[in-house]
Design a protein that fits this description.
single chain, about 625 residues, alpha+beta, Neutral Protease, domain 2, Immunoglobulin-like, eight-stranded mixed β-sheet, 14 helices, 34 strands, globular
């Protein structure tokens, strides 16, 4: 009587083991609910918080201090009351007591570019003047780059609270690689206390800012007034509300012409840059007033000697501001116009009134409507400028959590960069190698025992260049061309972008949109590429010739499954290309391809285009 239950248990265990080891087993995802639907789109009860800012700030170049006051109107759309609100105080990364300073965080190295998070030894940080609501002081606690503000009474679902904050900080020369100054040029970002995200997945996202992880922010309206010396020209997130006060008549006329022009217009020429003729006031200060809606952040740049080019596309004002000594930047405005057009046509229409790029010391950083760019060659300038503008779609438009999932931000962006580079440099060797460069990097970065999964948090990643940028771009490139095909992939990727525009998607949402739009179960693909460091090793084991057919014996010797492509050569001098779907591995790691007809096979080559990251190419050919 005991044998039957034991036998049943053994059978169940055996079955479970087979299911657990199948490369095609289901990926464990959160259960769909009213907030996030089974098709990957926002559910009928999806909600997210809203943060609207009114900011007045003054930048004093003589002391290099920025002072500001803000009112944040925070709306609680969550179905529960909130007793406190978390803020980000990013400038505390430059404080001597910061985690970054204490741990001596190493710089991020991306080829020849290095992002130093140490603030260059600058000892700074935020000094808070007051934190108040309705005229009363609020209790708050600062934990490094995060601040918890306790509310006098819990904020009910559907309620709004206004929180007033006054602060100041000294502007570091190199602000953790993402903002800073160079002489009289200022690129200012992460500069005001910002509300953290409270979402339906984790509640408060109060992860500290120590450098490698970027940002996760709420959407809202920004009403911003920036006061600087009168000789400064300012560019910022948002639409300029008072051009008559801060621009000359000629500049306003040129801007009006540029937005309707398909060819670049010089707003400030090289000869005019830095001269009094470019400013409506000779001395004192000017206040620049910007308003932006449906953005998650605001940044600005200022210098007294900008050259300023502008052009239009589809009603969007596209701008490039740069110092007269900047090399290659006269072409930047054409690069910017091409980029905005390309991504708008391929992905989702650019949603804002202007797209502006700034030359300066920051190698590359993105904010809504505004990017900071440097370049050491024409190709490098184009790539960085294009890449930073690509962030206007991911994550400025599709607001993923960069602190946890950089592959949904940097990876998506690096992927869409491939085709933009190919298009701009079409017909040149640079364009021809844009896609192949990703797979060529594989041996140098996908090192067994050292490589980490793409799901690794950025602050834990030892090779963020690979795990956040290059490998996910290779992943999506192969999905587009080798697994699904452009005709299937492109509409699905656009559907994901549209579904989560101005919202907060998670990886599960992306996976589900792609599965439902394409009709293809891709759990195997996401597991291998994102959650493991699986490696591909496909092989041609042998070829057997029979009287009626030839059989090509293939094997999958690695831990990754992928489709296969064969180039088959015949004795009569002809050849054929055979493409096999990933389903070839449904029954195990060996597959027999039956080639009908009497023709004799003389050679078989796996992956003849060398598009897959196969770790052992010696076994890809028969005969050896």
């Amino acid at each position: 009587m005991v044998a039957a239950p034991l036998l049943l248990a053994a059978l169940q265990l055996t079955t479970q083991q087979v299911q657990d080891t199948s490369p095609f087993r289901a990926l464990a995802l959160p259960t769909p609910n009213v907030y996030r639907a089974a098709d990957g789109r926002p559910g009928p009860s999806y909600w997210q918080q809203r943060a609207d800012y009114t900011i007045a700030a003054t930048l004093d170049p003589s002391t290099q201090v920025l002072r500001g006051e803000e009112t944040v109107r925070y709306t609680n759309n969550a179905p529960v009351p909130l007793a406190y609100v978390w803020f980000q105080l990013d400038q505390n990364i430059c404080a001597p007591t910061s985690v970054t300073s204490q741990l001596h965080q190493p710089p991020l190295v991306f080829g020849a570019t290095s992002f130093d998070f140490s603030c260059g030894g600058f000892e700074g940080g935020v000094t808070l003047g007051s934190v108040r609501s309705a005229g009363s002081d609020l209790r708050y606690q600062v934990f490094g780059t995060m601040m918890r503000v306790d509310l006098p009474t819990p904020l009910a679902s559907g309620g709004t609270v206004a929180i007033d904050v006054a602060w100041r900080f000294g502007v570091p020369e190199m602000g953790a690689g993402r903002m800073g100054r160079d002489g009289t040029l200022y690129e200012i970002a992460q500069w005001y206390p910002r509300v953290a995200v409270y979402d339906d997945v984790r509640g408060w996202n109060a992860d500290p800012y120590i450098g490698a992880g970027e940002f996760y922010l709420e959407y809202g309206t920004f009403d911003v007034r920036l006061t600087l010396p009168a000789e400064y020209v300012v560019a910022a997130t948002g639409t300029l509300q008072n051009p008559e006060a801060v621009l000359t008549t000629a500049e306003r006329q040129q801007l009006a012409r540029a937005v309707r022009s398909d060819t670049p217009v010089a707003i400030i020429t090289a000869a005019e840059a830095g001269t009094p003729a470019t400013r409506p006031a000779a001395r004192g200060t000017l206040t620049w007033y910007f308003v932006a809606d449906s953005v998650r952040d605001v940044a600005f740049a200022a210098a007294p000697n900008f050259r300023w080019d502008a052009v239009g596309w589809d009603g969007i004002l596209i701008e490039a501001l740069y110092r007269p000594t900047a090399v290659f930047w006269e072409e930047a405005i054409r690069m910017a116009q091409h980029t905005i057009r390309h991504f708008s046509e391929r992905l989702y229409p650019y949603p804002y009134a202007h797209a502006t790029t700034i030359e300066g010391p920051i190698a590359g950083m993105e904010y809504p409507m505004l990017t900071f760019v440097a370049g050491t060659s024409r190709e490098d300038l184009h790539y960085t400028l294009m890449h930073e503008f690509g962030h206007e779609w991911y994550p400025m438009l599709v607001g993923s959590n960069e602190r946890l999932y950089p592959w949904m931000d940097e990876g998506f962006n690096t992927f869409i960069d491939i085709e933009a580079s190919e298009d701009y440099f079409r017909g040149t060797p640079y364009a021809d190698t844009a896609a192949q460069a990703k797979v060529n990097m594989y041996p140098d970065h996908a090192i067994p025992g050292l490589e980490q999964p793409l799901s690794t948090r950025p602050v834990e990643s030892r090779d963020l260049f690979w795990t956040a940028y290059q490998k996910p771009s290779l992943m999506l490139h192969l999905l587009r061309y080798e697994v699904l095909g452009k005709e299937v992939f492109d509409p699905a990727f656009r559907a994901y972008t549209a579904a989560w525009a101005f919202k907060h998607p998670t990886p599960a949402d992306f996976f589900r949109v792609m599965r439902n739009e394409t009709g293809v179960d891709l759990d195997w693909f996401w597991r291998e590429w994102i959650y493991t460091t699986a490696r591909l090793d496909q092989a041609v084991d042998s070829v057997t010739v029979g009287p009626d057919e030839t059989v090509i014996h293939l094997s999958n010797r690695g831990t990754m499954v992928m489709p296969a492509e064969l180039a088959v050569s015949f004795a009569d001098g002809s050849s054929a290309t055979v493409r096999l779907p990933v389903d070839m591995w449904n029954l195990g790691s060996r597959f027999q391809y039956h080639l009908g007809g009497p023709r004799r096979v003389t050679a078989v080559q796996l992956d003849p285009r060398r598009v897959f990251p196969d770790i052992e190419r010696q076994n890809n050919r028969w005969p050896r």
